From TrEMBL:
It comes from Caballeronia arationis. Keywords: Heme, Iron, Metal-binding, Signal. The keyword Heme applies. This is Cytochrome c domain-containing protein. One of its GO terms (molecular function) is metal ion binding. Residues 1-23 form the signal peptide. Residues 24-99 form the Cytochrome c domain. The keyword Acetylation does not apply. Gene3D superfamilies: Cytochrome c-like domain.
Length: 150
């Protein structure tokens, strides 16, 4: 039947569009996360109070601002990780999609290997100061859910 064909095609196109918007490989990302990030940030990204910030439901706010988007690539844990530029982009896009569904901006553009390569180095040396500046900007925009201290 013709209608069924059209419906099937529409479903297939929508799947392709959704996959493109997400732009990450979940299997590789999980592996990269487990080997390079999870030891400090914990399995579900909640962090360790007093030591390691949560990445869950906060990174989405950071990437909503250019300086926050850059900060995420340049924090030492990300910048200095053994992950290649493409792998780091993949892990960050996955963290943003799976742990930041409610904070990631609607028009978020996925990180690319090229963007990571251009920005990840040098790693930030004044992380706390840079972070506080960004958190204050978020507060000025009415976002108070990213803690100043973790
Ligand atoms: C050795 C422990 C450690 C590892 C491994 C680590 N991080 Fe971190 N991460 C931290 C700490 C501590 C901070 C707080 C800033 C700082 O002091 O560097 C942080 C901050 C961050 C931030 C900024 C969040 C915020 O609210 O300030 C991001 C994004 C991040 N890490 C991503 C990653 C990613 C992605 C990986 C894996 C590729 C990773 N980190 C691996 C310890 C780690």
């Amino acid at each position: 039947m013709k209608l069924a064909g059209v419906v099937l095609l529409t479903v297939m196109v929508l799947h392709a569009v959704a996959a493109q918007a997400e732009a990450y490989d979940a299997v590789q990302a999980r592996q990269g996360w487990v080997l390079n990030c999870m030891g400090c940030h914990t399995a579900d990204g909640s962090g360790i109070p007093g030591k390691v910030p949560a990445l869950r439901e906060s990174l989405g706010h950071f990437v909503g601002m250019p300086e926050g988007r850059e900060f995420v690539m340049r924090v030492p844990g990300a910048s200095n990780s053994a992950l290649s530029d493409a792998e780091l982009a993949n892990v960050l896009n996955w963290v943003l999609a799976t742990m930041n569904a409610s904070t990631r901006p609607a028009g978020f553009k996925a990180y690319t290997a090229e963007e990571i390569a251009a920005h990840r180095r040098p790693a930030l040396t004044d992380v706390a100061k840079t972070r506080l500046g960004i958190v204050k900007k978020l507060q000025a925009k009415g976002i108070s859910t990213v803690p100043e201290h973790y």
